[in-house]
Amino acid sequence: MKGNAVNALKIPAWGMFIISMGVVLYLAKSIFIPIVLAIIASFLLAPAVNYLKKFRIPSTVGSFLILLLFSTVMVTAANYLADPVSVWVERLPAELRHIEDKLLTFKSSIANMRETTDKFGEIAATGSNTPAREVVVRGPNLLYVLLDNTQSFLVSVASFVMLPYFLLAFGDSTINSANQYWGSKESSATVIRIIQAAQHQVGRYLLLITAINISLGVLVALTMWALGMPNPIVWGASATILNYIPYVGAAINLVIITLVSLLTFNHFGQILLPPLALVLLNLLEEFVLPLFVGKLFIIDPILIFLFILLLGWLWGMAGIFMAVPLLMIMKIVFDQTQARESA
């Protein structure tokens, strides 16, 4: 009887715990987002730091060199892509009205939709003759907004810049020093083995995914260049970045390529070629990915999609990009724990 009462209390207790964690993750996202990004970046760069150790380069020096190289590549790529991306961001809203002229089959339905919208607008305008009372809501003063935003920005930058270095340079020593905080040497060694195995497998997974995404981006850039698309490097970079978001990223990139193709070409066959080529390259990537990654890193697509929705709701675009690496980290830690328990 007493055991049944305890079991009955577990479900609401877990529910309250999950809700509380969701609230904390949402309210403190300015702290959690850079920390999680730093952890993922350290997993990605850890194999390079370990490789430098073979040449007797200390982890403190190797971590600094790898982070410097990584930051240089990222800043250079962002600086190179900034101009063409900004041009397209400014151009697309103005050019979207020209798409209507090319989509002849949908022209009549668009015109009917506009007429209906205009009629509803006229009805809404004439339906109420009483002027609306203007309500002014005063927000916080400018000094408060600047201080609040500056504090969040500084915390985020400091966390993302400094934490990867500390994780790469002192991560192993931190794990080894954790021995003294555990009750028995056996449990301590088990936890350390699980953490080290998870680090190795997550680093390998992120490295493989990054290599595959870069290869896909190069193929997309070359294909777009061969088909006469403007700024092919931009579309290759978008394919590389958005491919970190399974399924959703490929769909977003397909929409972008289709819109640019509509704005660039006039003939129906030319318009179809770039999005069709992108679909074929994405299908090829889906076929190649399991060959390199293996079954160990395969996760149910429904679970991936739900996790992307959850983190996207909590943390916005940053959460969408971090969803799959975080899910992979949790899966690897869970698999390692289960393997140790069954051994």
UniProtKB/TrEMBL annotation:
Keyword Protease in annotation: no
Keywords: Membrane, Transmembrane, Transmembrane helix
InterPro entries, per database record: AI-2E-like (IPR002549)
Subcellular location: Membrane
Pfam families: AI-2E_transport
Topology versus the membrane: Multi-pass membrane protein
Regions crossing the membrane: 7-25, 31-52, 64-82, 152-170, 205-227, 247-265, 277-298, 304-330
Domain of life according to the entry: Bacteria
Protein family membership: Belongs to the autoinducer-2 exporter (AI-2E) (TC 2.A.86) family.
Protein name: AI-2E family transporter
